[in-house]
Amino acid sequence: MQSYAREHVRGLAAVLSALSLALVFGAVGGYVPDGLLPRLDPLVEMIPHINVVISATAIGTILRGVRAIRRRDIKTHRQSMLASAALFALFLLLYLYRISLTGPTEFGGPDIVYQFIYLPMLAIHILFAIIAVPLVYYALLLATTHSLSELPGTGHARIGRVAATLWLVSFALGICVWLMIHILF
C-alpha cells in the first residue's frame, strides 16, 4: 500500500481533497439526511467554542512545526505537523457534525460590519481553507511515503510552506469570525 501511495501522491491528495470538500459542501448545503446523526444538544452548543480552542492550539502546533524545521529539528517538526493535522481533523469532524444539524450560524451584527468586514473575512477564511486542503494532504502524503533523505527531492518543503501559511491565516480568520459571531455580536 505504501508503494502505491508513494507513486500516486498527487492523485491520492486529489481524491482525499475532493472527498473532504464534498463532505463539507454537503454538510453546509444541508444534504445530510435528518435523523442520520444523533443530536447531542449540549455538545452542539459547545462546538464553536471547542473549535476556537482547537484552532488556537493548531496555530501553536503549526508555528512550533515551522520553528522546528527552521532549526532542523525534524522530529519536533513531524510531531507538530501531525498534531496539526489531527487537530484539523477533529475540528472538521465537530464542524461537520454541528453544521449538519443546525446549518450555518447567522451573523447578528450591523449590516455595514457584515458587508465590509465579516463577509470578506469569512470569504478569505473559506478560500484559504479550501486551497490549503489539497496542499496539506500533498505535504503529509509526501512526508509519510518518502524517507527523510528523499524529501528534499520532492515538493514537500515548498508546498508545506504554502500550506502552513494558508492554514495559519485560515485558522486565525476562523477565530476572528468566532469572535464576531459569539463575542462581539
TrEMBL record:
UniProt entry keywords in alphabetical sequence: Membrane, Transmembrane, Transmembrane helix
Transmembrane segments: 50-69, 81-97, 117-141, 162-184
Keyword hit for Transmembrane helix: yes
PANTHER family named among the record's database cross-references: DUF420 DOMAIN-CONTAINING PROTEIN, HYPOTHETICAL MEMBRANE SPANNING PROTEIN
Protein name as annotated: DUF420 domain-containing protein
Organism this protein belongs to: Halovenus rubra
